[in-house]
Design a protein that fits this description.
Length: about 210
């Protein structure tokens, strides 16, 4: 895909949604961190239902630690892999308190050292909580990038690298949200809604559904 086409795609996505953001509910970088850890293999709707109750009980690392493992599990038991996620969350909270004064660090290396936090999660935190122009590649973004031809790659790291290369600077801050939402609601996995797609004429997907 040439640069002009790529830019036009982003211009259209921006026009449709000028100020995109995550659909996870949060009021602090710490709440976002916990929500993103919980969101792995879970829906944002499901995570929001759980955190609505959890964050009323505890919304700081110290508060989560005070809950303890058993009580934390009660709040997140509706979410897939909740046993492992609960352990990671407690370990993360412990490290935040011990090493970062209870504050979520604005640093990739420090974030990725936390249990349950990989590159994708770190990218989300850096972008959404701190305004860094990072692009976190999840299944939606991986699919949209390859289907449209914006950034083809065999794995998420290759797609992220390509997206950072081809995405114009003025669009990098919001690119993650635009591509994710497009994949979630239009360029769906099993049945993409090509007939309702605002970038269908620019897309390189050979099996477009008319």
């Amino acid at each position: 895909m040439n640069a002009a086409t790529c830019r036009e795609i982003y211009k259209r996505l921006e026009k449709e949604n000028p100020k995109p953001t995550t659909e996870l509910n949060f009021s602090s970088p710490f709440e976002l961190l916990i929500a993103v850890i919980l969101s792995a293999q879970a829906t944002d709707i499901g995570v929001n239902k759980a955190t609505a109750k959890l964050f009323k009980a505890a919304r700081t690392p110290q508060g989560i630690l005070a809950l303890g493992l058993t009580n934390l599990k009660v709040y997140i038991k509706t979410i897939g892999l909740f046993n492992n996620k609960a352990k990671n969350i407690l370990s993360t909270c412990k490290l935040l308190v011990e090493n970062h004064a209870g504050i979520v660090p604005e640093d990739r290396t420090a974030l990725e050292s936390l249990p349950g936090v990989g590159r994708k999660t770190a990218n989300v935190i850096l972008n959404t909580a701190f305004g860094h122009p990072t692009i976190a590649v999840d299944t939606h973004i991986f699919r949209v990038s390859n289907r449209t031809g914006i950034a083809s790659g065999k794995n998420v790291d290759k797609v992220e690298q390509k997206l950072l290369e081809v995405t114009p600077e003025e669009f990098k801050l919001n690119a993650h949200h635009w591509l994710l939402l497009h994949g979630r609601y239009t360029c769906k996995a099993r049945k993409p809604e090509c007939q309702n797609c605002l970038i269908s004429d620019l897309c390189q997907y050979k099996e477009k559904i008319r």
